[in-house]
Each structure stands twice: as structure tokens, then as C-alpha cells.
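Running this now, will post back.
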Amino acid sequence: MTKVANAGSTEPKKVVGVGSTEPKKVVVACGALALHIDQIAKRRGWKLEVRPLPPELHNRPERIRAAVDAAGGGDVVAYADCGTRGALDDLARLPGGDCYELFGGAAHEPATYYLTDFLVRSFDRVVWRGLGLDRYPELRDDYFRNYERVVWLAQRRTPELTARAEAAAEKLGLPLEVRDTGDTALEHALERLLLEA
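Update: finished.
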């Protein structure tokens, strides 16, 4: 069983893990975080059932709460606010305004378009086609006119992902900045959430 020391207490707290008699915890997750959460759970020995939701919901955040409810709610919700304007606040959810805070460790920076490894891999499907830019490329300047740069919060930088991030930034007509973040901040936030659930 995995144990985690509770800050301010000498009593260890239990996290669902291998050998635990507790049932799996259900995590309804943003599709952009689901793979990371699954990898973290395997690495830590947590017994989790991860139910990913379509990442395209980020293009229509007013639909996220209904999708979470339709997925059965779960023990915890692996979304930050993500543009829902508080619609998830009554649920056990990840902290912060958006998922990028979980990787970047800081508040959202103005005029910055963020990419994670997931969005680098799926940029053409989720962003380019998801926003209709494949059909109406002239909308790019309308959508991205107030952005000054693309920041890739790299969890695991590889030459292939680097080339894809560069191509995504070029399509958006913006300079690229790369920050190696890993997924430690997400892991700690998820751990706290599971301990509280």
C-alpha cells in the first residue's frame, strides 16, 4: 500500500494503491490529461479508473459540466476550471483556472497560447480542425490576433514533439517558447485531490 505523510501530522495518509482493499477511485478526466493521469497512477501504484472526456470540450467549455455528469461524475474530476465559470466548483476537482497551471506552475500569462505534449501531438485535430481553421484559414488572425507567443509546457520533450510544436507555432504565426515542466505538479495536485476525496 502506498502511504503519503500528511503535512502537519505524523500520521501517514493512505492513497489508493496496489494491495489496497479499497475499490478503484473513478477519475473523470479531461482528454488532454487522461494519459498523464494513467501514467502517474501506474507509476505510483494507484488503483484508478480513468474516464477520459473529449479534449475538444475545451473549445466549448460550457459543455464540460454536462459531459462530466454524463460520465457518472466520478470520485474526482481531473479538470481545473477550464473556462466553465465555476460550473465544476461543487465537485472534487483539480485546482486552478486551467490545466496549463498544473503543468506550468504559474497563473496564465497574458497574450500566451499554451500547448502541452497532448496538444502538440493532436494540434491538427483538436486546434486546427476543431476551430475550423482547415476550412477557413482566414479565421486564424481573428482567433489569435491578441496572442504574442506560443508556450509549449513540455512534459517529455522529444525531437518529434519539438518538430510538431514548431510546426504548430508556425501555423499560428507566432514565436515558440519551450518550458520543460514534466508532470510533477499535476501528480502532486492529483495526489492531494485523491487524499481529500
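The mean pLDDT is 88. More later if anyone needs it.
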